[in-house]
Fold this protein.
Amino acid sequence: MTTWPFTTAQLTAGLRRYFADSSLQVVALDKVPLAVPPTVSGIPSSISGLRVEYETRGQRSNVECVVKEPRGPARPGVASVGLREVGVYRSLAVQLPMQTPAIIAADVTGEWLVLEAVTADKPSQTWEADDYRAAIKALASLHERFWNLGEDLAVYPWLSRPLTHDFEFYVYAAVSAMEKMMVDDRPQAITRSLHALTGLGLVLTQVEQMVSVLRAAPSTLLHGDFRPGNVALQEDGEMVVFDWQVAGIGPGVLDIVTFVNACRWERADLPISSAELMELYRREIETRVKASWTDDEWQRLIDHALMWRFTQEMFAWAASASTETFAAYEQRFHDIWLQPVLEAAAQRLRPALYL
């Protein structure tokens, strides 16, 4: 028998609001299989499929839902990842230029959520080039809607602020991850490589210089983990976007770097180049909000975003991945993350002087 994190009364109240039917009564709850998109970085969660049998006005029916229990880190003064996702669905969803799953019920602290189940008519592993282009345009539309509205978005205190309020948290976690790698002497692709140690050392010791470029860029609403696995593509081309656990405020370039690298990580046979995706986003933003960059300015912004996203996510992943997991992803980690970050650090950061 499955133990659910909510009571029947809580679920019943949520379903009555969802269906706008005060006569609804929950009859039975059954756990059902749920296909969860694989992910490497991002916030872990316990996710289950739920079929609810209910009765209303003498008629029985059922509805399938997703039960989510976020497991992200918590610290004083910062909203939990669950509370952040609840906040997006309840306060921002109506303002977003894309569809999101409907929230049926949720704990007030964000410890659990019950969402409507949304099935992708076209799994992300079968996306074609035009599907990736459509995702880029959807991302640009999101950023356009909130472009340069960082101060306005501050009224939502549960949103992440990776470059300001949450900055020290990410830096501390990255430094701790680097120390763990050195103590454990793994992965040796980093710990036994002077080139890698030097480059990553530049990233960690010059992190303020690195993010100063990003802080100077216009802020918008960030999804935080925008990737094909977090998008349910429908037959009519509509995209339902979920997993808003790391939604925050910052420059849109962070989302595009996350998306492009996630595409490459999740699919070796990507039908469109990362360069085309980056350039499409750049053109979309230039058209929509009249923000323009020279080629050098754009590449500089991308390089700094790449180094910061590595600091946010990939230090911790490399330190915590098992030997088997790291071996399975080592080539992708090197090609998509490590080598580009080392090249960016060598070009954008000051060389260290050893006496």
Notes: The domain at 124-348 is CATH 3.90.1200.10 (Aminoglycoside 3'-phosphotransferase; Chain: A, domain 2).
